[in-house]
Amino acid sequence: MRNSRSVVRTASIAITACLVCLTLAGAANGSAQTAHQPKPTPKPTVVLLHGAWADGSSWAAVTAKLQGDGFTVDVVPNPLRGVASDAQYLRDYLATIAGPIVLVGHSYAGMVITNAATGNANVRALVYVDAFIPQQGDTVQELAGAQPGSGLDPNTTINAVPIRDAAGNVVDVDLYVKPTLFPALFAAGSPAKIAAVLAASQRPETLSSLSEAFTGVPAWETIPSWALIGTDDRVIPPAEQQIMAARAHAHIVKVSAPHLSMVSDPDAVAALITSASQR
């Protein structure tokens, strides 16, 4: 009887020891697997830059969608004083951001991001939304008129406000789109109340910036780029957007949208930015 009990006790101890060994081995194996699992890549910061005759609020719906997907989003105020000076401001702003960046520009802001991103190793992707994509020597005025289709006639659609120095001398001119014409040119198809708010809150572009030539190495020569083309754009002709995007070897997406496509089609814009962030 004693021998029987001894055998049972010995067997029980052996089984317990085996279970402990198996548990420890499993834990060690799990720890090893966990240690070898690659760490998730952090999402890049998305920097959004508005163009002329708009402000940061034009990115509101896109910002909300990207933030909902876990992106950090910075909506930068574009000074709209001139291509070179605006690019310098953006360049200084980008220097405050640690880690990878997806840089997005709408309309005139395409001129700015193409300059400011050059030489910044953190900028992993450029996204152009109904935007100018310049090369050396290009101007806004020349690109806007290179193909037919723009309804932004400076003789009939613009209100001009002189910019004076302290002595009263005119040093430049601020250009505004006439509020009554703004909805059809920029936001066709959007609700009338939204278009009216956009027209009332527009920020002007200087006259001198229209003829200021792009200088420096275009960032798209070294940074992958994406382009969203609104096929109903009446500010920058879609045909010219196609030419510029192809020249930059951009990944092109077309949507049936007006110039302010980020207002009318935020889902499409956010999806393109997300795609660019995954390169």
What is this entry, summarized?
With 279 residues, the chain is an alpha/beta fold. The protein contains eleven helices and nine strands. Helix 2 (60-68) crosses helix 11 and helix 3 (83-94) crosses helix 4 (109-116).
What's the mean pLDDT score? Answer: 90
Shape: globular
| N-to-C series of helices and strands | HEHEHEHEHEEHHEHEHEHH
Largest sheet: 6 strands, parallel
- Strand arrangement, major sheet: 2-1-3-4-8-9
Commentary on this structure:
Strands 2-1-3-4-8-9 form a 6-stranded parallel sheet, with helices on both faces. Strands 5-6-7 form a 3-stranded antiparallel sheet. The termini are far apart. Helix content is 41%, strand content 18%. With 279 residues, the protein is α/β, with parallel strands linked by helices. It has helices at residues 2-36, 60-68, 83-94, 109-116, 140-144, 182-186, 192-200, 207-210, 238-247, 261-264, 266-277; strands at 45-49, 73-76, 101-106, 123-129, 158-164, 170-177, 205-206, 225-230, 251-255. The model is unreliable at 1-28 and 30-34 (pLDDT under 50). α4 (109-116) links the parallel β3 (101-106) and β4 (123-129). α2 (60-68) packs across α11 and α3 packs across α4. It is built from 11 helices and 9 strands.
Topology diagram in text:
Blueprint: H1 2-36, E1 45-49, H2 60-68, E2 73-76, H3 83-94, E3 101-106, H4 109-116, E4 123-129, H5 140-144, E5 158-164, E6 170-177, H6 182-186, H7 192-200, E7 205-206, H8 207-210, E8 225-230, H9 238-247, E9 251-255, H10 261-264, H11 266-277
Parallel strand pairs: 1-2, 1-3, 3-4, 4-8, 8-9
Antiparallel strand pairs: 5-6, 6-7
Helix pairs in contact: 2-11, 3-4
